[in-house]
Design brief:
With 191 residues, the protein is an alpha+beta fold. The protein has a domain at 92-191. It has five helices and eight strands, in the order ββαβαββαββααβ. The protein has a three-stranded antiparallel beta sheet with strand order 1-2-3, with no helix packed on it. The protein has a three-stranded antiparallel beta sheet with strand order 6-7-8, with helices on one face. α4 (130-147) crosses α5. The radius of gyration is 20 Å and the shape is globular. The two termini are 28 Å apart.
Length: 191
């Protein structure tokens, strides 16, 4: 599915209304998880999709050079140069990370929907961004997992393999929770 397609408004506790749209971040999950249907959506504040669509449809993300004042310029390079500085945090700006994973399937012979939600915010005490907390702490938990001998697989493994081993999954989730990155899990029966 193309990026920015199938937009929908979703409510996220503690944040409010967000717009969710298809993105292409499934990567290795497509090959490693046997599921008849899988989609990744990115959530942003309402209005984001339209702004990005205007840039995309105006050609700002194209890699093919255009002539500008007799000089070949890649629109993507120009857009990056102009936009990236605007996306840097200014003094007092704080980020948040909201994630929702919804899985439907059979558990103990019953059809269920299992939902995992995480909402993390900038840490004012340590001055650590939420994105750094949620990604960096997860990587550090993975290193501790290996250092303690809990991970026996050799070679390079995609991150979702951690979830296949309950002890590894529980270790990482507990490690994140100690650092204030907590997931809420709900299970509801399906007809």
């Amino acid at each position: 599915m193309p990026a920015l397609s199938e937009p929908e408004l979703v409510e996220f506790p503690g944040v409010g209304t967000l717009e969710a749209f298809n993105t292409d971040g499934l990567r290795s999950l497509i090959a490693t998880v046997k599921a008849p249907f899988m989609v990744e959506k990115t959530m942003r504040y309402p209005g984001h999709i339209e702004k990005i669509r205007v840039l995309r449809e105006s050609g700002f993300f194209r890699a093919e050079p255009v002539m500008l004042g007799g000089v070949p310029v890649r629109p993507l390079d120009l857009a990056s140069r102009l936009l990236f500085p605007l996306w840097q945090f200014g003094p007092g700006e704080e980020d948040l990370t909201a994630m929702r994973v919804v899985v439907e399937g059979t558990s103990a012979g019953r059809r269920v929907r299992r939902t995992f939600e995480m909402l993390d915010r900038y840490d004012r005490v340590t001055k650590t961004s939420s994105m750094a907390r949620t990604t960096g702490y997860t990587c550090a938990a993975g290193v501790r997992l290996v250092a303690r001998g809990l991970w026996g697989r050799k070679g390079v493994s995609p991150p979702e393999f951690l979830g296949r081993e309950r002890a590894c999954y529980e270790f990482v989730m507990a490690d994140l929770a100690v650092r204030g990155v907590a997931f809420r899990e709900t299970v509801e029966p399906l007809a």
